[in-house]
């Protein structure tokens, strides 16, 4: 639900509505029930801002997925469409596509990451484990890497391990560290009544 604010290292940014917020649990909880945030979360047409028809949408999302999973440059999206149109000149889908770096980034941020986040949140509704460790960045701030592992049955049974969040705070006190981790679970409405924490 929240990610690091690129314009303010002390704040987080709401992924739904783009608001910049201080990392205090009460403020984050209060924000989730504001009209602005609820409207952004409940809007079923958010995808329409970034994609066109059904066939074009699938192709544009597939290209964005390839871009992020293969670690391709977003600048490539500004040049790839003429290549597609030359290679697939008889394709109605390709002729109707719109691909550029801004759109590719928007699809990744608002469609692909949203779907991935829902899958992870769903997986964490059952038994899971979390692990976190910290290091200091160039600004001498503590960065906590919070990772999780949970069981998935489909498409085949396996243990999925994923980075849940990178949390920032300027102290390593146990109580404040717990509050920081706890705010992540509260903000994403994940219960961790049954869990195991591994401190490395």
Kindly summarize this structure in a few lines:
The protein is an alpha+beta fold. The protein contains seven helices and seven strands; from the N terminus they run βββααααααβββαβ. It folds into two domains: 46-118, no CATH class; 124-200, Nucleotidyltransferase, domain 5, CATH 3.30.420.
Q: What's the story with the biggest beta sheet?
A: 4 strands, mixed
Q: Mean pLDDT score, rounded?
A: 79
- Backbone shape: globular
Strand residue content: 15-25%
CATH architecture annotation of the largest domain: 2-Layer Sandwich
Rg from C-alpha positions?
A: 19 Å
The helicity comes to 40-55%
Low-confidence stretches: none
Features:
single chain, alpha+beta, Nucleotidyltransferase, domain 5, 2 domains, 4-stranded mixed sheet, 3-stranded antiparallel sheet, 41% helix
């Amino acid at each position: 639900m929240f990610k690091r604010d690129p314009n303010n290292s002390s704040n987080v940014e709401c992924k739904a509505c783009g608001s910049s917020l201080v990392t205090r649990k009460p403020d984050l909880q209060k924000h989730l029930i504001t009209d602005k945030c609820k409207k952004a979360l409940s809007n079923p047409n958010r995808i329409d801002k970034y994609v066109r028809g059904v066939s074009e949408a699938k192709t544009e999302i597939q290209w964005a997925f390839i871009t992020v999973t293969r670690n391709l440059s977003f600048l490539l999206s500004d040049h790839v469409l003429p290549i597609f149109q030359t290679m697939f000149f008889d394709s109605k889908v390709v002729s109707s596509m719109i691909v550029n770096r801004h759109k590719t980034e928007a699809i990744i941020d608002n469609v692909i990451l949203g779907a991935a986040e829902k899958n992870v949140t769903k997986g964490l509704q059952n038994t899971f484990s979390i692990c976190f460790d910290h290091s200091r960045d160039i600004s001498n701030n503590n960065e906590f890497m919070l990772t999780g592992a949970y069981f998935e049955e489909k498409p085949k049974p396996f243990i999925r391990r994923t980075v849940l969040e990178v949390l920032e705070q300027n102290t390593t006190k146990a109580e404040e560290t717990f509050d920081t981790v706890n705010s992540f679970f509260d903000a994403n409405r994940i219960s961790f009544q049954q869990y195991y924490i591994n401190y490395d």
